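The following block was generated as part of the benchmark described in Methods. Ligand: FE2/S2 (inorganic) cluster.
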Amino acid sequence: MWSWVLHRITGVAIFFFLLVHILDTALVRVSPEAYNAVIGTYQTPIMGLGEVALVGAIVFHAFNGLRIILIDFWSKGTRYQKVMFYVVIALWVLTMLAFTPRHLINVFSH
Amino acid sequence: MSTVTVEAAQGPALGDDLEAAPPGSFLVTLIIRRYIPEIDDEPRWQDFDVRVLPTDRILDALHKIKWEQDGSLTFRRSCAHGICGSDAMRINGRNRLACKTLIKDLDPSKPIYVEAIKGLPLEKDLVVDMEPFFESYRQIQPFLIASSAPPEGRERIQNAVARERFDDTTKCILCAACTSSCPVFWTDGQYFGPAAIVNAHRFIFDDRDEGSKVRLDILNDKEGVWRCRTTFNCSEACPRGIEVTKAIQEVKQALLTHRS
Ligand code: SF4
Ligand code: FES
């Protein structure tokens, strides 16, 4: 149940990010200055933390997506769904441990 | 296990007291979601203190309340031994059979919450209208479909391997614990639900049956098997230990491989 709830939440969050992201990228066609101005506002520590959340959501959604594919197509998938969920959590923690410090050093050293 | 002998019977007990408060018994609080349509506009929670033994079941506690404290408490039960499927209810937030849930397997030092299963229309106290549930069950045609008659004076023979294929799904007692634990079913009552799919699986993978095409077609519907989001609530709820999600996945696979 929780894997599904998290998958939903991260999925919807990623969708809205992509929506905004496509809009702001499309802005470059309208006016490069406006584009630069908008992108400029992203260079703040708050956005830096937001990026951690975004990467966290994407990483979870990606790993859990693989788990769901295994549940769907591997005949033993349903039996090992719990184990695979813990593996997803473990991989997520590892990835975030590797990513977050480096990223935050980048963000805050500007 | 019996660490919960809080209020064991004290003093020289007479026969009567012994029956009222047997050694090892203790008081437990049940908080039951009551709804009597003639009186209540909205369901309400009501507390009951019951003296139980650790080895009593929730069903015994409900009986004690009904027989000794409040005769209006309404719930279904028939066999009291986990085979008729009448008494699925939500106990401490999980769907279980009241007759298979021992007090000691819950935490009796805290109140125990008991309410009707979710997603089906509430009729009274712990009783819901099971009709939508059985309607889905009927729709998947849960009976043998065969064009030929069985060999004269004999049963239809099936070998052990072929029988094993659907063994798990023959165990269903139609208690609705699975279907009423499914978040998809809560929000979309049209969804066939796990129990109907389990019982379709029981015939789809039976090699004596010739109706699997029909049943697969029915479950290929938009309210059929594809509504399953593999939340695994059903597998965790099933009191018969059926791997419900596995059965649903197998039906999905059959749909993927039989056509295209
Ligand atoms: S599959 Fe299990 S939980 Fe669902 S109705 Fe059958 S016995 Fe009850
Ligand atoms: S009363 Fe029959 S299953 Fe519980």
